[in-house]
Amino acid sequence: MATAYRFSIGPWNIGRGADPFGPPVRPAVSFDDVLKTAVQLGFEGIQFHDDDAVPDLENLPPARIEAEAKEMKKRLDDNGLVAEFVAPRLWEHEHGIDGGYTSNCATARKWAIERSKRAVDVAMALGCDLIVMWPAREGTAVRESKNPITASAQMLDAINAILGASPKARIAIEPKPNEPVDHAFVPTIGHALALGARSADPARVGVLIESAHAILAGLDPSDEMGFALAAGKLWSVHLNDQNGLKFDQDTVFGAANLRGAFDQVRVLEQAGYADTGAFVGFDVKAQRTQKAASATAHLATSKAIFLRLVEKARSFPEKQAAECIASRDYEALERTVLEHLLSA
Ligand code: 3MF
Ligand code: MG
Q: What is the pLDDT of residues 151-170, one digit of tens each?
């Protein structure tokens, strides 16, 4: 029996439809309703920004932060849910305007490290050891505004500070090449793993791969996953889709490129990802046009498509494909793949 996949969800995946050109179009969803949706749709893990778990944590003393995070853990326990990860949300705070760890302002850099340490405290109280580092604004819009050599050292300092905050903490870096910045300092999985390898404890630094982020970097998400899986470093995924090089769309998994989605599922299957216990998350957003009553359909669809593609990966005609490869008949392999994807 193949191990079952475990799925996770973040509260930001049930959004209100705001975009850079217009305000929210749906009512706010309470955290309790997020938990209810997770249970209903069969998502076992909850992904947190630090302040999703402990609102206003900037203004609370450490003991209060811990107490509130423990209360949150109880809410999870009561619903049969677990915390998958905590991500320090540096990019929405005024100190994070020019990035946190790589800000040109020393006060902001100090703040970013302190806030990240608090995120570790939150994670530990929630009973999870994974810290997701999305270096959202760690980069430039005006290339000459920061020194990339200094920035790499600052990123490394931040990683080491998080590792130092708890011997249990593991970091999954979630690289993205652009947006909100023009050029990010940690744009790909290769960059993330290289930084991790130079850290104080390389065994505790891995990656989270978001499909759309790889596509925005002009890379194939399944190859990025394969690279991380080969190193035993793929500790979470944000599956979604992206229709070419434009803003980060966060569409339903498989919506733009079903074959690309199949290849991602296939590489996870080939590596036995489910056996590692790591979660499958979908960083998807409901379309702005979606009415509130069905604004979680994108999550249900992504999970359903993922599971259909698991079946497709498991029933893939491996022998036939191997024969095509052995005779270097890649046209026949192309046909084999396409026919399999189209078959009932
Ligand atoms: C970035 C992320 C999140 C963002 C989320 C909201 C962990 O891809 O996964 O951080 O906050 O996407 O837009
Ligand atoms: Mg993501």
A: 999 999 999 999 999 999 99
